[in-house]
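Supplementary notes (optional reading)

For those who missed the lab, this is the record we used. Protein: UDP-glucuronic acid decarboxylase 1. Length: 428 residues.
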Amino acid sequence: MLSFPEIHMPRRMKFFLCLVVITFAFFAGYAQINSATTLRSPDTPHPWPVRMTKIEKTDFALYDEIKQLKAKVKDLEAGRKTYPEVGFLTYKDRKRILITGGAGFVGSHLADKLMMQGHEVSVVDNFFTGRKRNVEHWIGHPNFELIHHDIVKPLFIEVDQIYHLASPASPPNYMYNPIKTIKTNTIGTINMLGLAKRVRARLLLASTSEVYGDPEVHPQTEDYWGHVNPIGPRACYDEGKRVAETMCFAYKKQEQVEVRVARIFNTFGPRMHMNDGRVVSNFILQALQNQPITIYGEGKQTRSFQYVTDLVDGLVALMNSNYSLPVNIGNPDEHHIEEFATTIKALVKSQSEIVHKPAMQDDPQKRKPDISRAKKYLNWQPKVNMMDGINKTVEYFREELERSSHQGRHLPLPDGTPPEAVRYLIEH
C-alpha cells in the first residue's frame, strides 16, 4: 500500500505546474498588448486593444485631450492676440492694483487706464451687473488678471492699491436685490478694509452722491450730512454707502489704513447697460427705438452728468493724492430732466414723444456737486463736453441694438436681474 505522501505528491505537482503555465500565459499576453500600444504611432487613430485595461484606456483618452489642447495652443499662437498699447513703468513705479467690480461700467474703464499706464491689474467681479466682454480685450495679457469672486467672501491677494467699486448702482438692480446690495456695501467693504490692513494697501471707496439723499442744500458740498429716508426703496444703496464711508474712517482711525472716498455723481458713457434704469440709458434707448421717452414726475428735477473718462481721471487723481477726506467727483453743469430728454430726442432725430408718469418715491429733486475740493486738492475738473460724450454713448447704444438684432435675442439685461423685475421697477 502506498503511503499518504506518495498518493498526494503528483496532485500537488500538477497544481504547481498549472499555476506556472497560467502565470506565463498572463505575462505573455500583457507583453503582446503592451507592444501593440507601444509600436502604434500616437499620431494615428488607434482602436482599443481587445484586452486593454481601464487604466490604459484612461491614459489614451488623456493623451488625446493633451494632443487636442496642443493643437489649440498652436492655433492661438499662429494668430497672436493683440492688446491696446501699454506704457512702461519701472519696478519702483509699477503697482499691483485690485479693482472690485472691475468688469462693470466704470470699473472696466478704470482697468483700461491703469493697464495702459503700465500697472499690474487684478479685476474681481461676481458678474451680477459686470460683463466679461467689458474687459475681454485684456484677457491673456501678463499684467492682467480676471477673478470671478464675490467680495462678500474674503479675498486673499497681495496688492498695493484697492479701488473698491463693487456694488449694484442702478435702481432696478439694487431695488431688485436690496439684501445683496447691503451685504456688498457692508460685509464686502469690511473684507476689503481687512485686506488693505493685512497687506498695507491704500483703499479708495467709490461712494455716491446718493449719500446726500434728496438734498436740502444746493449745490452739495462734502460737509453736507444729507437728507436720506433710512427705510425707503433706495435706502439699501444710500445707507449702504453711508455705512461704508463710516467703516473706512473707523479703519483709518483705529488701524491706520490709508483710505480715500470719492462721492460719484451721475456718470454716463459706453459700456452702460442699456436697461440700466437711469435717465441717460433710458432716454437714449427709447429715442433710438422711437418709443415714448418717459419722464417720471414733472421733469423739473435736475441732474449733473459727467462722462466716464472724466470720472476715471478723478478716481486715479484721488487715489494718488495725499487728501483723505471725502471728495465730490462730478460735473457741476446742471440740467433739467425734461431739457435733457429734448436734447437726446433732437440728437438722435427720433420720432419719440415725451410722456410723463408719476414720480418715483424718494427721487432727488436737485443734484449738483460742489467740486471745490477736487479742484484744490486733486487739480481735477471735468474736461469732456457733455454733447461729445452723449454722441459717443448714442453710437455705442446703436451698436448694441444692432448686435441684439443680429443675434436674434432680447436687449441685454443686467446679469442676474429678471426682465420682469426690471420692467416693473422702471414703470413704478
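If you only remember one thing from this example: Residues 1-8, 33-50, 409-415, 422-428 have pLDDT under 50 and may be disordered.
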